[in-house]
Every structure is written in C-alpha cells, then in structure tokens.
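Team,

Forwarding the record for the chain on the shared tracking sheet. I've put the sequence and predicted structure together so nobody has to dig through attachments.
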Amino acid sequence: MEQVWKERFEIKSYCVDFQQILKPSVLLQFFQEAASNHAEQLGSGYKALAAKGLFWVLSRLSTEITRMPEWGEIILCETWPASTEGLLFRRDFLIYDTDQNIIIRAVSGWLLVNLTNLRPQRISALGINLSGNDGKRSLDYFPERLNIQTKEICYRKKIFYNQIDQNLHVNNSQYLDWVTDCFDINHYNHFSLSTFSCEFLSETHWGDEVELRTGTESLITEVEVVNCSSENVVFKAKIEWMDRN
C-alpha cells in the first residue's frame, strides 16, 4: 500500500475562472478526488466503509497558496494520512508544478461518521491501521475552529439540482463557489487568494435556502453560510488576499 499518494491533474478550460486560473472549488475537488482514491487503495474507501456503516466527512481545511495553477498546466497532488487530532483524522496535501515547485500546501481534518445515527466514531472503528506518516507535514499546524464576525448580508441562494451530490446534500466544493461569488470583478482584478480556511458544520439539502454573510477588514474576509429556516451556521470560511500588483 502506498503511504503517500501521488496523482496528476490537468487544468482544463472548465476548471478555471475568467482570469484562466484554477477555481478554489476545483482545487478542493482535486483534494477530495486524490484523498478518495488513496483511501480506496488503503482499504478505507467509500465501498469499504459503507459495508461497515461508516463514511468520511470533511470537517476542516486550511490552504496556503503561493500561486494558483493556470489553464493548461499539469499539476501533481501529493497526499497522505498523518495522525489523529481528537476525533478528527488529519490528511495533508501538497501541489507541485511541472518544475517540481510546491505551489500549494493544505491540511484537512476528517470525521469518521456512523451512517445510521450520524455520530462521529473513533478511527479504531475502521479496523485497519492508517499510520505510517507521523511527523510528515505539509503545514506545521492543524486547522482550528473558526471564530467568524460578519456584518453584511451578501446574497441568498436556494439549493437545487446542480448543488446536490450522490448523498443528497450539498457537496463541499460548492461552498467555495458560493464564497467566491461574494466578490465582484474589480476585486479579482486587484487581489488574488493567499490563504483560505474552511469549517463544515452541517449538511445543506435540496430545497434549503441559505444566506451568505461577510465581514472584511483589510485583506481578510470572513464568511458565514446560514440556513435561512433554522438560522444555523452551516459553513464558515476565512480568506486572506494578496495584491495582484
């Protein structure tokens, strides 16, 4: 079994934004695809877990960006399971360009959840050993819970077909699409992403309506996604920007 998984992705035209650079939501899709493929190879993939009445849930993610890859580039994603942080299982990521430069670093925390009662489980419930990368880190910290202060309502959105995944709830990457829709073209002409951290708190389903709330101070923007019916915060993000000039 491969303790460190390596997978290449080509940046297609449908992966990029109007500036021909990779969308953050697609970067998250690459992370999830590589993590899923590695989990499958380690014996802890979707089918293996479903047979045990378990599934993985992404809980937290922190990403640091030197630069986003551009249309036509081929990148290498390297990922590995690292350790446990309480009930959260750590998985790290590195993105390399074709010159073998590390251009993106990320660390994530995953919950192992019981399919029936939706309660988090200890990693021991897997029945397999996923250790072997202790001490190997893409970043020297683990994502903390986000303390978000928002002041403005940006927009509302109702959930339909295109936001729903095979589990009948909103896919994680969709939240980053919603977050990046909070900014206008002038903003993107002057700033690019430097870091972003996410916290996934609860599911959003077909027919739900959500509200995006933001707060910005200097080059830091904080975002909450709130379920309009329950007023529960379902997602949080903190974004740091850098001047494109």
